[in-house]
Fold:
Amino acid sequence: MSGDDHDPAPPVDLDRLLAAARSVRRPLTLPRDCSAAKVGAALLTDDGTLFTGVNLDLACGIGFCAEHSAVAEMLKTHRTRVVAVAAVGRRGVLPPCGRCRELLIQIDPANANAEVLVAPGETVPLGELLPRHWYPSEADAEA
Structure:
């Protein structure tokens, strides 16, 4: 279940991933300039399980990204290894922000290989979005 397993990742069905992210994006206006679910995200784990999440924007500035809530759902099942991630908003595909990129790589360094949907039909490995990452790799830890 965690990133310790080294079985090959399932092939990524980008249409399924995108559909899952779109399915939870149902904007909800909350009181006093607050909103939820304007962005939907989907994560595919190394065992083929999909997890989804939505964002939360609060007037005071706190809240979280859709990827964060999807990661929280995933972590409840003790999974850490992500093979693909997609997020969508009003204007379509949204690549994850820097905070989300950091979250994904810190919960499992193997997530550097996760395919990140950056535009319709276009993915980039998470590691390419975080070049010269500051967080030590497993190889660095062993040295």
Observations:
- Residues 14-24 form the longest helix (11 residues).
